[in-house]
Amino acid sequence: MLHLQKYLGISFRHQWLFSVTRFATIAASAPSADPAPFAVEDYLVASCHLTRNKARKASKAKALSHLKSPSNPDAVLAFLSGLGLPPPRHRRRRRPRPGTPLQAPTRFRHPDIVSKLQYYIPFFGSFHDFIRALKKSSYHLLCVDLESVVKPNVSCLRECWLSAHEISKTCILQPRLLFSKQENVRAMLARAEDIGIPRRNPVFRHALQFVAGRNKEMISRKMELLKTFRWSDALVASVVSRNPSALTVSEDTAQRVSEFLISEVGLDPEYIARRPSLIKYSLEGRLMPRHYVVKFLKVNGLLGHDRDYYTAVKWTDKVFVEKFINPNREAAPHLAEDYTDACRGKMPSRFRLQEPGTGLASV
Q: Domain coordinates of the chain in residue numbers?
């Protein structure tokens, strides 16, 4: 970046433009459908207000020469303008114009935003993911100091045997891990361990995503809620240690799914505990329609009774149709149609899957 600045001979007031444009174009989107050719030199003159000579030199730089569309640099300029960072020719303007999407705090317009963008965008891996984290943080990521807050917090996360990729992905969903006080981050790490997941465990980062925004009382309530599935304390601990996302199930979902899996499907609580992903699937969109398809096929001798329910549920919809629906189109011509309707919430009180007069039983 410094080499590019020196090459262009531009002042610090232009630095933010080329810093962010370079990073944004690294994560380039699909080629523009605009048939008109994009000229970098003309863009720099018209939008960045460089002289023709400087624009010509800049357009040959590796960081800019491969641009095929103005979409990425336009998005960057619009984003920074929304934060109160004016383009070079409006440098004297002290405040954002009335009506801008974000009336940003004064500190957003400080020159250190350049160094923050230079740090965050490579950290998150792309401009898109940086924007995701920034919005989720309510723009706090631009308010905190890198050296005294963000980087020490990243060091804390590295102590948990998390890779750089795992840290960035976790912080996209929970950016508070970057901008919170270090003692609070360490408390979050401790809470993840408290639910029975050691730091070296591969699912530790998933546990961290859950506990980062919740206190001990809320976590305890979620652990207690899992007993809705008739699990003992030991089973709850076992489920959470293998699948922390089980703690995100709502009270209504837990009650309805538990009732269906245990009372309707007839599954044993320990069977469900060994397959905790069952409680995260959509009741109306997956669990119910597939149960009735499998039940119908078994009742009519079209499927072996030893076929496991979880096997039918875990497949993607495409694979499920290939394995359970397509082989039975001749014997049950309405099976595909009724299954599709059921997945759309059109489940009738009686799951009618048979053609009248075929002798097939309904369920």
A: 2-102, 112-213, 215-280, 283-343
Q: What is the mean pLDDT of residues 262-285?
A: 95
Other CB atoms within 10 Å distance of the CB of residue 30: 7
For residue 309, count other CB atoms closer than 10 A to its CB.
19
Q: How far apart are CA 69 and CA 29, in angstroms?
A: 10
Spatial CA neighbour of 296 closest among 344, 256, 328, 330 = 328
pTM of the model: 0.65
Contact 353, 296 (CB under 8 A): yes
Are the C-beta atoms of residues 292 and 342 closer than 8 Å to each other? yes
Q: Which helix (H) or strand (E) holds 339?
A: helix 335-343
Q: What is the 3-state secondary structure (H, E, C) of 74-131?
A: HHHHHHHHHCCCCCHHHCCCCCCCCCCCCCCCHHHHCCCHHHHHHHHHHHHCCHHHHH
Q: What is the pLDDT of residues 84-133, one digit of tens each?
A: 544 544 334 444 444 444 544 444 444 577 788 889 999 999 888 999 99
